[in-house]
Design brief:
Layout lengths: L1 H46 L8 H8 L17 H10 L5 H21 L7 H12 L2 H6 L6 H19 L5 H16 L1 H17 L3 H25 L3 H11 L9 H7 L16 H23 L3 H20 L10 H19 L8 H45 L7 E4 L2 H8 L2 E3 L10 H8 L4 E6 L12 E5 L2 E6 L6
Parallel strand pairs: 1-2, 1-3
Antiparallel strand pairs: 3-5, 4-5
Helix pairs in contact: 1-4, 1-5, 2-17, 4-5, 4-7, 5-15, 7-8, 7-9, 7-10, 7-14, 7-15, 8-9, 8-10, 9-10, 9-14, 10-11, 13-14, 13-15, 14-15, 16-17
Length: 494
Amino acid sequence: MAGSAHATLAGLRRERSHRTSGGARRTRCTVALAAVAAAFTLAQLLLVPPGMGLGWDETVYVSQVSAHAPAAFFSAPRARGVSLLVAPVASWSSSTPLLRIYLAVLSGLALFLALRAWRGLFPVRVLALAGALFASLWVTLFYGPQAMPNYWVAVGALAAVACFLHARAGRGRFPYWGLAASAALMAWMRPMDAVWAVLPLLALGLARRHWRPLAVLLAGLTAGAAEWVIEACVSYGGPVRRLADASAIQGGLGAHFAVVDQLRSLGGRTLCRPCTGGLPHPLVTVWWFVLPVLAVLGLTVAVRARRTAATLLPFACAAAAAFPYLFLIDYAAPRFLLPAYALLALPVADALAHLAGAPRRPWRPVPATLVALGLAVHLAVQLAVLTHTVASTTAQHRGWSRTAAALHRLGVRPPCLLTGSEAIPIAFYAGCASAATSGHNANSTENGIAGTARRIPAAVLVPAGSGPPGYARDWAAEPFDGGRLYFTVPESGR
């Protein structure tokens, strides 16, 4: 009896010790990932000034819920996720700095949750390093606080793969809720990007008959894309027609080799269309070539560590997410590949941790030193590109703000109408509606614009070397940044 009691007490002590050590590991993981997310948020606020102003696409998304200006034309490829994301701030405040701070904090929280979903699948040091690698890319820092969808697809994909792995392993109900939420987030932001990103998950679910995770994933995608589908039926002639219109706006999806275009965009070109000119300095692009090599190395490390699925699945999802933007469109933007970068950060971090922590041998400091030096150079390059991109973007946005101020001085004040070159962002800055008679954002006719101009102030922005449309030839003219501004202010609008 005494021996049995002693054994029982010993077992209880071991169980208590195991629970205590497990709790300590979870706490360390949470603290490490929270530190990465907090640093990411702080870096955004310091390096991407909240007062930078809104970009072209941002004005479209924000205008849908803002009282500052009428809603801009919402073209077929867009989804309402970003507009709903910014609504808690943009619906009652026109402050861009406040919106930027809100998005920076929210993006940091989202990164923490996405990384935390991987707890138990990778060591803590790998998860923290993966988060730091992804968060330190100039494109991540630049778009984290912006009202754009790509970052949210990235963190959604990162969380979805982790939750799928946990769910197929039968680790409780929480992974299913996480899988549904992350899939819905992706589809809410960009439905087609969501489908591409989860193709390997769908294939694995079918091949291995993981019916429950598969059903939850499909339910999440359906819930997130429901609004887009309903809007397609109501306003675009149905989902098939909307997809066709979206393809046409993107230049027609087909066989296009956009790899070189993506390389050109790495130097800070936020939209490379048409993508001409030389490549950036090799120091700016070298990380892009090292990335897949390290990811493959990370996969070999994972095979030896017997966590192949946890590395192979994000690798496959990254490839699927990147494929349409590398081989199916004829232009580039660095933000398109954010989901691929987020997913590849895991195997890359695993490879770097393995290189830096090689077994104790006389030459061990060599790879650790090389890894540290490489990361230092990489961070310096990313900071330089970010600084350049922020400066050029801020200058462009200030130009729009100056034009809006000039319109107000000339009497073109809300309610008003703006058309012509860069009318959409400038109209938002001025508080006007925007219109176009041709192109991807066509939503009016010349007769419609002329009729509106007889009731409210209107202006046409004409680039240098071009003339005004027929209805504006008798309007007053003033120079503006890069062209001429033709405007009319009816007596009732004076």
